[in-house]
Amino acid sequence: MVVESASQYPTFQNLSDENREGALRSCLNLICAKMSIKNLPSDQDVMIIYNHFLNYFRTTTLEELMLAIDMNLNGEFAKPEAERIEPYGLVDISYLTKILNAYSTRKRLAFVEFNKLKADKLRQEPPHKSDPQKCYENLRDYFILNRELPLTADWWAIFEYMWKERLTENDLALKDFFEEESQKIRSKIQQQLLTCSSLFEKRQLEMELEESKIRLDCRKLYVQKRITELFEKAK
Fold it and tell me: 28-37 pLDDT, tens per residue?
């Protein structure tokens, strides 16, 4: 629900000028109805909230606002030592800001999980839909022409082609390279985990420690190294 509410609807800033205020007012009235609050926000209150949203929550959708209200009503933001966020008879900036700040934390975690599932699905798909030989030739030609490597490529397919065509070093050299580089990658990430300050950053780093991600990073590093060695003389 979080990902859908954030991705499938226009953000507050992207609503048309003629519809933005009316849409916000409708949401505020619905929130009052959900919370059994009889006093609806005045025109002045609506404009204060309107300007606050444009300044601080412009990339949030109104659907997310309503979802956050429902999540709070269901106690999903409550911690063991705290009850749910209450409006105390008034839907104002303070109440809505507390709701959306609590929602933002859940939103970041939801997108981390969504991206992880998406990456897992891609890894499970049949590999190398592109032609490995063509990928290798494109990389080779790009390097010879530009004297640098591209930022992105199908590193997995290129490595497999180079290994099959005996363009890599011997197996012992490959084993030493992969063990050394994988250890460097793990050590760097583990060091970053010790100093990271946010849960979102921690989850991202933990994803980098996955074995399949480390194997791909090692293949990328090896391809970059080997292509440079093979074609450096082509200057």
Answer: 999 999 888 9
Residue 63's closest CA among 95, 24, 34, 32? 24
User: Six-digit token pair at 77?
Assistant: 């933001």
Domain chopping of the chain, boundaries = 2-124, 132-234
Distance, CA of 157 to CA of 139 (rounded, Å):
11
Q: Which two tokens stand for residue 93?
A: 């900036």
Q: Dihedrals φ, ψ of 221, to 5°?
A: -60, -40
Q: How is residue 130 annotated by DSSP?
A: S
pLDDT confidence band for 128 (50 / 70 / 90): very low
pLDDT the model gives residue 81: 45
Question: Among 118, 142, 145, 135, which residue's Cα sits nearest to residue 207?
Answer: 118
Q: What is the pLDDT of residues 143-158, one digit of tens each?
A: 888 888 888 889 999 9
Contacts of 89 (CB under 8 A, 6+ apart): 37, 39
DSSP structure string for 99-122: HHHHHHHHHHHHHHHHHHHHHHHH
